[in-house]
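hey can u check if this looks right to u? its 401 residues, i copy pasted from the old doc so theres a chance i mangled smth
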Amino acid sequence: MKDQIFEALQGNVIQSILHEAHYNPTNNYLRNTLEGNSFKVDSNISPKLHGIFNDVKTTLGFEEAVDFYVTSDAQLNAFAVSRNDENEPHIININSSLLNLMSDNELRFIIGHEMGHLISRNADLLKLIYFIFPPNTELPGMLQHKIRLWKQLSELTADRYGFLVCPDVPVCVSAFFKLASGVDLQRVDLNIEAFINDNDKRLEYFKSDKGINLASHPVNLIRVKAIQLFSKVEDFKPEAANQLTTEQLAGEMAGLLSILEKIKESEIDYLFTHFIAAAGILLSGSDENYNEHEIESILQELSEFVIFPKFFMDKLIETGKVMEIFNDSIRKILEISPSARETMLYYLVRIALSDQKIADNEIGFIFEVGTNAFGYSRTEVAQIFANTIQQRFIPAIQSLS
């Protein structure tokens, strides 16, 4: 997914341009701010803390230069920023509140996590995204969901690097607990083993399609479970109980990742996903000429409901039951919300107009569905069609050349 996003953003081209332009205002500003206001961890000034940072770096075999900072901030947070130039060091910053709350081993896990972002080069892609789409910029729907999922997956990847540094599940879990609650374990007399067991029960809420998470980080329930699974991989820890092969790990993780892939959670959203895909396939093929503009329009509509719309469409076509799915989704949607018929009819008309042509077969298909499935009169269908044409139809330039 990282490569797909990078290529979609034309990362190689843009990074080359930025390098030629010596464009790095964010890094310069951040480094100047940290140098001027934060505590830079140095082996002479703070040998113990610097030793922890350096031990993590050595354990992970990361040889590139990194500057470590501690910033006075009440927010429980840490971050990594990749360098702009090979001659510069990367940056890892730990907020003071986080440093004060974590034990040395928990801190190793946190630092390993942040260094994981540098090793996996996820920090590079994040910087590219923020250049093209600065904070508070509205992203296209499909790209927005893809980036959100990638961010969550990159956090799980970084957690694995943290675990490699601190291969102790209870310690990693206690770090998650402190990040979530902001309190020390002794303050609440936390039973880590009971907390881990309860995690599985609470995770069922999300697995049952009731929970949804659209934040940049996966919920701690998923992170805890992912660390548990990773700790049992036979290639990594042969003595672990209930060992998992890498294939079994992938299967277990697929179940967790399906939670992260959810965008919508209601039954009618599920039905609309199938209606949009099936209707788009039937309509775009009704003129026996699948047009890339029509397909693009269908995928754009689908991207509001699923993260991988093309994959979803392809799987639906493979069933060989597109018409059956189309009719079934209409029937069930109308049972839940009869007023949705207008939304569905407008969608069909928009797809028909997306290639800047109005084909006779498409008109016939829409009138048939509008009258038979939605219960409109032909006049009502024609009025909706006319209204949409007036608002959206633009003739193709080729037809005027």
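The chain has a mean pLDDT of 85.
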